[in-house]
Amino acid sequence: MIKKIVFGAALALATPALFAQVSVIQFITPTHYKALSQDAREKYVAGILDAESVLVPQGFAAIQSCVKGADVADLTAKVDRYMEGQAAMGSAMALNVHNAIVMSCKPQP
């Protein structure tokens, strides 16, 4: 739980600095994410994963093998499928992106 809070705080603090030069939405809720266009969702997912790889390398290590060489459209589709579940609606969107990739990477029974 503490790791999730630290990860979320790191992303929240880093996001304004990462996007300071362009005009983008700084905070995306699950509801906002679902309303974004496909292109915007892909950019959001790519941005969150890029930020995680730089700012939270220990968290990114858990998903590195899952994203290496992956197409952003495929990663976004995994996040979209994860977002269909009700549990994701109460979570921070950056954590949903991470958790979606983690869950899609686990072997299915």
Structural notes for this entry:
With 109 residues, the protein is mainly α. The chain is built from 7 helices and no strands. Helix 1 crosses helix 3 and helix 3 packs across helix 6. The longest helix is centred in the middle third of the chain and has 18 residues.
Give the N-to-C terminal Cα separation. Answer: 26 Å
What is the tally of helical segments?
7
Helix content: 55-70%
Question: Could you report the average pLDDT, rounded to the nearest whole number?
Answer: 77
Please give the number of β-strands.
0
The poorly predicted ranges are 13-25
Roughly what fraction of the amino acids lie in strands? Answer: under 5%
Backbone structural class: mainly alpha
Following the backbone from N to C, one meets helices and strands in this order, namely HHHHHHH
Q: What's the main sheet like?
A: none
Q: How large, in whole angstroms, is the Cα Rg? A: 13 Å
Keyword list:
109 residues, mainly alpha, 69% helix, globular
Fold topology:
Blueprint: H1 2-18, H2 30-35, H3 38-55, H4 57-61, H5 64-67, H6 72-83, H7 93-105
Summarize the structure.
The chain has 109 residues and is mostly helical. It has helices spanning 2-18, 30-35, 38-55, 57-61, 64-67, 72-83, 93-105.
